[in-house]
TrEMBL record:
A cellular-component GO term for this protein: extracellular region
Keywords for the protein's UniProt record, in alphabetical order: ANK repeat, Exocytosis, Membrane, Neurotoxin, Presynaptic neurotoxin, Repeat, Secreted, Target cell membrane, Target membrane, Toxin
BP GO annotations: exocytosis
Subcellular location: Secreted; Target cell membrane
GO-annotated molecular function: toxin activity
SMART domains: ANK
Source organism of the structure: Caerostris darwini
Residue stretches of each ANK repeat: 29-61, 62-94, 95-127
Protein's UniProt name: Uncharacterized protein
InterPro entries: Ankyrin_rpt, Ankyrin_rpt-contain_sf
Pfam families: Ank_2
Secreted among keywords: yes
Amino acid sequence: KLKLLNSINNLAGLEEIIRASDLSNANKEGECFVHVASGMGQLDVLKFLHFKGADLFRLDENSESGVHWAARQGHKDVIEFLHQRGLSLNTPNKAGDTPLHLAAKQGHSQTVDFLCKHGADKNRPNEVRSNFKFEIFI
């Protein structure tokens, strides 16, 4: 059902899928609707999922939240929405990468700037002992 979200471009179609599924369902990697919508930058879909009671705090098997998924793709509007609802900008995934590390690795400078201005820890190293400043130059 998560693959279906990739092809949904309207909330009416999404509502039909949601009626037939459980919002807490995840695939074998622990990915749920919230993760996919966050990674795709589908803020309207994410707001709809939240309204329908989806768990915004759910982590996938890599200990990543929607904030990680959005940061990796540079979707700062999604990050802002999730952060306003209490999700941390400093939670590391299993590799020790925070959303700031992920945004920096992908070269999303506006997202890096947003994260830094909203409290992301610029000095926190990941598991290979690099901080986001190092990641920018990789």
